[in-house]
Design brief:
It holds the Pfam family BPD_transp_1. The chain has 304 residues and is mostly helical. 69% of the residues lie in helices and 0% in strands.
Length: 304
């Protein structure tokens, strides 16, 4: 028998990845960004949000290749003397955590409602899908802004920074669940008429067990592709909200906050403060989207 690694390496899924230069490049870029963000505490040259380490005399230093650049700050510093490279690593970690949390929340809600709508049918299906249709008629950013505004009005001001992360995750998740619900509903309506579902009903298996143990594994393929693409959308939504000043607090900035801060210096010549966070956001989203496109093709049996 072949070792497990050889079986995985020779599988159709990995073979497709090995023969796709775009997928390999996107994986390498995304892996490097993940390592830098997750390991920012140990990899970053400085802690950009430790006020005790900041030196205003080092403010607005250009990148190392500029005439006034220094090797201490490879990508320069901002108006407070923070190292841009270190700020990128810490900011990307915040964006990834919020994006991943929002995708998980949207998947949990959307898959559950999609299974219920597709399996139950009738009035339950119509009610859930009409709610999804109404929500899909509004841009996701407006839904997220509405939820964030309600949270800020309900909770006292001294709690805004504490609840900023969970509120932002919930806002983006609630804006994205209809896509999962519609996808799962369509697949569930096909699967519920299969022989294995009818056999499970005959032997007396309960409806929730049939939905989540038997039907769910057979509808997850399209959901995984959708989750990959939604991760990029969630990161962009978080960056947009932070750029508008309603995202994470300034004490824990994300890529959107860094871009907003740098925008104030863009026309005064300190272009690096906003260009590098913007480039990092583009690389992150582009690599995730490219992997999502490859995953869609790899999991589509009509293209194999």
């Amino acid at each position: 028998m072949k070792p497990l690694f050889d079986k995985i390496w020779d599988s159709d899924f990995v073979w497709s990845w090995r023969h796709s230069p775009v997928a390999i490049t996107a994986t390498l870029i995304l892996s490097a960004l993940l390592v830098c963000s997750v390991g920012a505490t140990w990899i970053a040259p400085y802690d950009p949000f430790d006020l005790g380490t900041l030196n205003l005399l080092d403010a607005l230093k250009p990148p190392i290749w500029s005439p006034d650049g220094t090797a201490d700050y490879l990508l320069g510093t901002d108006g407070q003397g923070r190292d841009i490279l270190s700020a990128l690593m810490y900011g990307m970690r915040s964006s990834l955590l919020i994006g991943a949390g929002a995708v998980i929340g949207a998947m949990a809600l959307g898959i559950s409602l999609g299974l219920i709508a597709g399996y139950a049918g009738g009035a339950v299906d119509s009610t859930i899908m009409r709610i999804a249709d109404v929500q899909l008629s509004f841009p996701a950013i407006l839904i997220a802004l509405l939820i964030d505004g309600i949270a800020r009005a309900v909770f006292p001001g001294n709690l805004h920074e504490i609840i900023a992360f969970p509120v932002l995750i919930c806002a983006i998740a609630l804006a994205g669940w209809p896509q999962y619900a519609r996808t799962v509903r369509g697949s569930t309506m096909v699967e519920k008429n299969r022989e294995y579902v009818q056999a499970a009903r005959i032997i007396g298996i309960s409806t929730p067990v049939i939905m989540f143990r038997h039907v769910l594994p057979n509808v997850l393929g399209p959901v995984l592709v959708l989750a990959t693409v939604h991760l990029a959308t969630a990161i962009i939504t978080e960056a947009t909200l932070s750029f508008l000043g309603v995202g994470v607090p300034a004490t824990t900035p994300s890529l959107g906050t860094l871009i907003r801060i740098g925008n104030d210096f863009l026309f005064s010549g300190e272009w690096w403060i906003t260009i590098f966070p913007g480039a990092a956001l583009v690389l992150l989203v582009l690599s995730v989207n490219l992997l999502g496109d490859w995953l869609r093709d790899a999991l589509n049996p009509r293209l194999n």
